[in-house]
Amino acid sequence: MQTVDPTAANSVHRNGHTPKEDSSLSPLTEAVHAGEARFRSHNSLTVPIVQTSTYTFDNTAELIDYVENHMFWDVPEREEYGRYGNPTVRAAEAKIAALDKAEDAVMVSSGMAAITNTMLILLSAGDHFIITEDCYRRTRAFCRTFLTRFGIECTTVRPGDYDAIEAAIQPNTRLIFSESPTNPFLRCLDYARLADIAQRHKVKTAVDTTFGTPMNVRPIEYGIDLVIHSVTKYLGGHNDLLAGCVVGNYSITTALRQAQGVMGAVVDPHCGYLILRGLKTLGLRMRQHNASGMAVARFLEDHPKVRRVWYPGLESHPDYEVAARTMQGFGGVISFEIDGDGPAASRFIDACRIPRIGPSLGGVESLIEQPSIISYYDTDPEVRLALGISDELVRLSLGIEETDDLIADLAQALESA
Ligand SMILES: Cc1ncc(COP(=O)(O)O)c(C=O)c1O
To answer: What's the rounded Cα separation, in Å, for the pair 392 and 408?
Structure first.
């Protein structure tokens, strides 16, 4: 845990975080304390919300010293302007960096901003990159409709096909971007294998581990360069904020901070505080998500009205072996097919009393959806079916409700399928 107060004036810190310090501590302890100083402004136990858009200088000499010695993307000893940094947000960044065992983390305004900013700083016109097929559909849309306009070429490969990934590498390939676990089929990456391929070809790797969280997966320990989170999901954890985070070495995060100062997708201080507050219970929440996930997945797998279940903790999942080796828990998202048609899946969903119908995942409230309706309603059915998104597919994001209550509710709702 770091010992500098990022909210105190004139504290010298690099994002308030000392990497790999106290690595013997459990992630549950780190989630509560890491990134925060032992002594804070006004002796507050919690990190104060520094609700300001700008920061003042006592006199012109102080301003000149700042301008001469600290560019805005530099490690600030003090803040200058809200788009370049905020102490409350820095504490949240430091906590996530500590949890991911990384040097640094940069917070941005949404998961999509984390993904788009990362691609924009790592890729230039004429570059090529590789993305795995079942990445979040908006990520794929960005690659397809935006990056191509700037002459950045993308090859899509099937997740789990490492030979195809290596074969797709060209002399101008700069990045391999993937997700793990993926949505909705929870495919899991062998991080060490991906990192080995990328390092041999001098290509950077970035993995979106929104569905995993640092409690369950820490790809940087396996040699992955960058980790991306939609903080909106498990890290925030309460379905009440939007944010994203990019985690990695200073060499890349410094460039990202520089880009952030120009592109401007910042998190406001109050949101920074909500993230910090959410992170404190991340360990506890993930224990419950993991426990319910495993129990509900087994319940569904044994149920006669369920045709197939995707959950990486089940032996039947295609990536069970990789997941069992690399994950501390398998999370709270389960995808399954009702043994019937689309309307049967809708009847089941409508009969659920605890999970609410809605997009998103990772919060304390359970959410349920039919991907064919909520995400792929306008997509050509042939394209959707080729991706495996059948009408009867259901995605369930378990909250932190009592496991037995959730199972009882699903059991009664399945009667309607
Ligand atoms: C895996 C994954 N990455 C990124 C995002 C985008 O995150 P946000 O909604 O915070 O922009 C999502 C959103 O659902 C997601 O599921």
So the answer is: 21
Total Cβ atoms within 10 A of residue 64: 11
pLDDT above 70 covers what percent of the chain? 93
pTM of the model: 0.94
Those residues whose C-beta lies under 8 Å from the C-beta of residue 116, and which sit 6 or more positions away, are 142, 146
Does the CB atom of residue 111 touch ligand 1 within 6 A?
yes
Residue nearest to ligand 1 atom 6, measured at CA: 111
Ligand 1 mean position to 245 CA, how many Å?
Answer: 11
Which listed CATH number (3.30.750.200, 3.90.1150.10, 1.10.540.10, 3.40.50.2300) goes with 283-414? 3.90.1150.10
Q: Sorting pLDDT into bands at 50, 70 and 90, what band is 66?
A: confident
In DSSP terms, 175 is beta-bridged to 129, 204
CA of 24 to the centre of ligand 1 (A): 31
Report domain 27-280's class.
alpha beta
Distance (Å) from CA 216 to ligand 1 centroid: 18
- How far apart (Å, rounded) are the C-alpha atoms in residues 412 and 144? 42
Contact 138, 112 (CB under 8 A): yes
* Atom 8, ligand 1: residue with shortest CA distance: 111
Ligand 1 proximity of 210 Cβ (cutoff 6 Å): yes
The percentage of the chain sitting over the pLDDT mark of 90, rounded to a whole number, equals 85
Q: Is 331 left (phi over 0), alpha (psi -120 to 50) or beta?
A: left
Q: 190: Cβ below 6 Å to ligand 1?
A: no
